[in-house]
Design a protein that fits this description.
Structural class: alpha+beta
Radius of gyration: 26 Å
CATH topology of one domain: outer membrane lipoprotein receptor (LolB), chain A
Helix content: 10-25%
Number of strands: 14
Number of helices: 4
Shape: globular
Order of helices and strands: HHEEEEEEHHEEEEEEEE
Mean pLDDT: 82
CATH class of one domain: Mainly Beta
Distance between the termini: 102 Å
CATH architecture of one domain: Clam
């Protein structure tokens, strides 16, 4: 009788353990599925608006970063001080980035000024004439400069845009001239963590990645930024060691200090250009 009781108890215990494991896995599966957000009532425009709210909170930015530029067969790295006044004034001062001949760069929606200390030349002109490869040795469009420095990737959408959910992120895909642009958005923070431009063959042309987001004065900003062109084997990496948000920046921080005997070269199409004296001191 005692053996029969023990046998039945053991059998019951075994069934109970199996049942418990079954319930555990069923519950886990249910919980996992429940974490996937319902996007049936969401549109790409909804996501775009929420992402823009974070961007809208940024008035000024001041940071110090280690910048690494990787090219086929060579690479450069050093530190840069970055100053940004919204909506479009950007000033970069570099410190000992070997191989990169730019000591300071100013950009706004109209003009640019760049000082190359090694050649002792100050370049200036209309923003449309600026070729950043001349100074940074890497392909970087002027409109990409803001994203490369702040990590605030804005979403461009049109009638072709489609919204889905992939890898625990919202995914928006929009048709562009080169092929498609893809945005991965954090569903809790509503920031773009990655974007890609791919051609018609799904080959990646450009990848932008943003990591280590921190909230400062109501703005979520990444501390690590990567821009990669895999086909050209080029990459620029920005690691911020300090960031100051919305503290106001003195206008003197947007002036380029150049040598008195520096040569001045105009890039542009104006027949009689005038040097903006606000750019230099």
């Amino acid at each position: 009788m005692k053996k029969l009781f023990l046998w039945r108890f053991s059998k019951f215990s075994f069934r109970f353990i199996l049942f418990s494991f079954y319930c555990f896995f069923i519950n886990c599966a249910f919980t996992s599925k429940s974490k996937i957000p319902d996007i049936t009532n969401l549109t790409p425009e909804d996501i775009q608006r929420k992402v823009y709210l974070n961007f809208q909170n940024l008035n000024s930015f001041e940071g110090k970063a280690r910048v690494i530029i990787e090219l086929p067969g060579q690479g450069y790295n050093g530190f840069s001080n970055v100053y940004i006044n919204m909506p479009d004034s950007i000033f970069i001062k570099t410190e000992a980035i070997l191989g990169i001949d730019v000591g300071a760069l100013f950009v706004d929606h109209q003009y640019f000024g760049a000082y190359a200390p090694r050649d002792n030349i100050f370049y200036y002109g209309e923003i449309e004439s600026l070729d950043l490869r001349k100074f940074l040795q890497i392909e970087l469009q002027t409109e990409e400069l803001f994203e490369a420095l702040t990590g605030l990737n804005q979403i461009k959408i049109d009638q072709s845009s489609r919204l889905s959910y992939s890898d625990n992120k919202f995914l928006i895909i929009t048709r562009v001239e080169q092929g498609k642009i893809k945005y991965w958005i954090d569903p809790k923070k509503y920031v773009v963590t990655k974007s890609q431009i791919v051609n018609e063959k799904e080959q990646v042309i450009l990848t932008k990645k943003f990591g280590r987001f921190r909230k400062n004065k109501g703005v979520l900003l990444p501390q690590n930024i990567w821009l990669t062109r895999p086909q050209a084997k080029e990459q620029i990496t920005v690691f911020y060691t300090s960031q100051k948000i919305n503290r106001g920046i003195s206008p003197k921080n947007f002036k380029i200090k150049i040598a008195n005997n520096a040569k001045r070269i105009y890039w542009g199409n104006v027949e009689q250009p005038q040097l903006d004296r606000k750019l230099i001191k």
